[in-house]
User: Fold this.
Amino acid sequence: MLLPRGLRIGLRVATAVTLGFIYLPIILIVLYSFNASRVASWPITSLTLDWYGRALGNAGVRTALITSIEAAVGATIVSLVLGSLVAFAVQRHAFFGRQTLSFVVVLPLALPGIVTGIALNTALRTVGIDFGLATIVVGHATFCVVVVFNNVVARLRRLAPTAEQASMDLGADTFTTFRRITFPAIRTALLAGGLLAFALSFDEIIVTNFTAGASTQTLPLWIFTNYQRPNNLPLVNVAAVFVLILSIVPVYVASRLTSGTEAARR
Amino acid sequence: MALYRRPTAQLGLLLAAPLGWLAIAYLGSLALFLVTSFWSVDSFSGNVVTTPTLDNYIAIATTEVYRTIAVRTVVMATLVTATCVVVAFPIAFYISRVASPRIRGILVVSILLPLWSGYLVKVYAWRLILSQNGVLNSILGTVGLHGPGYSDIAVWLVESYLWLPYMIIPIVAGLERIPSSLLEASSDLGGRAGLTFRRVVLPLAVPAVVAGSIFTFSLTLGDYITPTLVSNTRFIGNVVYDFVGVAGNQPLAAAYAMVPVTIMLVYLLLARRFGALEAL
Assistant:
């Protein structure tokens, strides 16, 4: 599109400034994790790798890290199964309530997280289920299903049903067709959806806070209970970098897999 | 059995597990949560009394502090949403209509990465930036200024920061969909860039902006982490969180959480009118 030169330059500057605004705090937290000082003052005077060793040696951080990974893997598996089932139903069938179903699947993202959190908390207490890893997985899966659903639906929409029909015309049954035609076509969408679900789960705190109970801690929860303790500040910085890496890398890989805007949108 | 000849059976198999999950884990919880808001807590034993009562809602409607906090939260969500729209438009316009396809791809990914990851980490980073001896005060101090510290302004800044990518992405998608011919027609008819923007681009971008605002608004309404880390002010989320945790009063928490739920449901219905749900 033809724009006046000044405007073009202005837009470029605005874009650079906005990107800087988005990334500077993230870069800063990485810098602070190498800060030799125990206090987070600025400027940073000397750097060290010590806190990484101490963080990994800290039982609280290690346990929380493992719990976070377990929870994220659990939530990813549940949402892969449920999300793709709903995607197939919505995309391949016309049925009463289809619109409503699509809406309900997206609802956990549109409603404030605290609502999902407190609703699950109330339900678990009322039914009498103990809080722990399993309830964290349930909480995370409620909003991770959407991500897988969106990715698979987007892929199925572009996949013409004629390929599947041809397969069946040639004598393959439903399951062979799925294994040989449908699955290979949606494989990267599933992988991308799964990675995004993992990332979403790994850094979640709003819902987790309501479904974890007193004795189980994910890494974000560990940060949340320790950020005010001056002694633990350097460890919190390192834990924050762990969370950052384990949520940004999967998202990056997912975005490469789907290359572009299509699938990574919520 | 030829499953493809029995679409109903196939559909049943596909839907059984997810519907069961959604109905029990999610909708069931939401329904119970709605019901709970009509329960009460015995002030002596601390046990939940399941006799239906409107007391929670009456308490919320008649207690001034709850009303003030609700209004404050809605004002904050509105300000954050407006800020995100203003900040998102230039970069979204650049990404969708100016940048080359290769740069566009890189930029979209660089907006998506922070959208998906590190929510708590980003709030925590801002806590360090805004602290007394933090980066902001250190930089502003050289010209004799002082940052907002931990305050309402800090909450506004951090929430706008957090949810900005949620506004950029829908606007990029919305602007991409505007046919170039419309913009060319406008300039052929003598419309300068500014006029074309106001009269052609902006109206066509409305559904995308509304779609983005669903996220910025909803996420701000329910956020209790940001106010906790960068201010001493309480918002709806903080009160609900304290009702559940400190006070152990689930029913009152549920009733108060109905405020953001109601607002969001009305918002979603209005958004559908604007065609914004398709733009999500």
Q: What stands out?
A: Chain A has twelve helices and no strands. The CA atoms of residues 145 and 188 of chain A lie 16 Å apart.
